Please model this.
Amino acid sequence: MINTISGGPTLAGPSNRSAKQYVRAAHCPQVFGIAEDRCRKLPKVGWEPITFSEEEEEGIIYPHDDPMIIRAEIADYDMGRVLIDTGSSVNVIFADAFKGLGIADSMVNRQITPLLSFSGDLVQLVGSISLPIAFGMAPRKTMTYDQFLIVDCPTAYNVIIGRTTLTRIKAHLSTHMLLMKFPTRNGTGAIRGDQLSARTCYATALKSVASKPPMEAMTLQGLPNGNEPIDDPREENPTPMAQPAEELETIILNKDFPDRWVKIGTNLEPDLRRQFIDFLQQHAEVFAWSYDDMPGISPDVISHKLSISPAHKPVRQKRRSYDAERYEAMRAEVDKLKAIGFIREATYPVWLANSVMVRKARGGWRMCQDYTDLNKACPKDSFPLPRIDQLVDATAGHELLSFMDAYSGYNQIFMDPADREHTAFITDRGLYCYNVIPIENLPTARQPDLR
Model:
């Protein structure tokens, strides 16, 4: 499925109900038009007809398939590399260009709805801000205010102008002539696309894609039960993994299971190497080779509780619809989590969240839960984790430092039985809740509990 940039603050509204009403309005335009005329009558503003003629092709290099790249005045700054995109439902200004405007961060609205990118993925936004934008040259110049979403990602453009602004200024586009016209008080204004800028941006975009390092595959050796492990989110880190500073040798921890091995450095002193191997083989049971080897931490030691404020009314989100590919990935993930006991079926939960399928950078899907409403009901714990310099200072005086990482550490901590059904989520097969802390859907994790 080929998508466009969707979401953000649009006329359709943020809720499913308002979006449905927005669609219904297109089915019966005459009914909605009559109702609107009864409430108020808008004065008609006359403007001369807007036309495009063959003579206006002059100056354009043909044939071409260049995008519409213009210059515009945004917040009193002359901004280049502005892409006109009729497929985008919102205006986008990229973080580097926004910083150049010198606007204080306090002016940015951080409470924004998610943005759906061209590939259908959710895009993390910095915030939104209302900015003035002007097109054309005086006296045939038009100006309007509109919302811009701030996105922090590498791009060849500074700004993307979407349908909202184009509709506000009554813009008419000719992609053939790379020409945009709009009515003004002094006649029809026009602005021409810059072919050189368009082709430069195109070449820059291709170059940035080609310069990305190839994805490295990671393999897990020998699961004894033959089950495919659930994806670890750490595998998606695009940062290249650190390489060992010396050659490594393979040490088998249990002769009965030759596929259970670890690697140690070859530059260890003989006595230290022997002691290290003996230590690892004596404590081989602490290694988790699959989720079956991970019984979890006893709730008597630690469990995760949700401090839900009684002042907040429980929210049961309405079930969202997805395509067949997402449903198939969702079912496969539910089967995995259910088989290893991470989730169970929920009955009559008071809180209910939707499952959100997010495409992975390396292909496939990851299932997350939308705990937005649950997070709002949980007060924030401002107690900070230890600073990194404190952790480094704590290593002083020790001869060895272990960099071992807990295998899916969050999943080893059980949810408090009273709060398990508060993590309920809905799928096409039914309702489920977590017995353990979810890896990526942690609802208001209290930092002191996880130290």
About this structure: Confidence is low (pLDDT under 50) at residues 30-39, 214-238, 442-451. The first helix runs from residue 16 to 27. The CA atoms of residues 207 and 225 lie 45 Å apart. The longest strand covers residues 125-137.
